[in-house]
Design a protein that fits this description.
The chain contains six helices and two strands. By secondary structure, it is mainly alpha-helical. The chain has one domain (3-101). A hairpin with a 2-residue loop joins strand 1 (69-70) and strand 2. The longest helix has 22 residues, at 80-101. Residues 19-75 form the DUF6966 domain.
Amino acid sequence: MNIEKMVEMLEEFSEILAKHGRPGWSNVFRNKTEALRTASNSPEIREIYAGLIQSFAGGPGSLTDLVLHRNGKPLKTENNHFDFLMRSILDAAHQGLEELDQ
């Protein structure tokens, strides 16, 4: 996984979260972006990717529970790009972990 591409996706994702009234989650992804940008070894990168996957795990209090709905309406149907970006980040994190394992 190209780390620069992942950083770009995370930055955009964080901006969308902020625009949709989720500053806490926006900060979570800003922090993950900065951590990925400054990671100097595989264990650090692995931890970031695993954290990203956990963020998208679902369930009460998760990103998908708190962010994908706004005013009772599913946000992902209001913003298909947001949903696409979320899935792309998740796929890239899984791919990054697989590459680190090889």
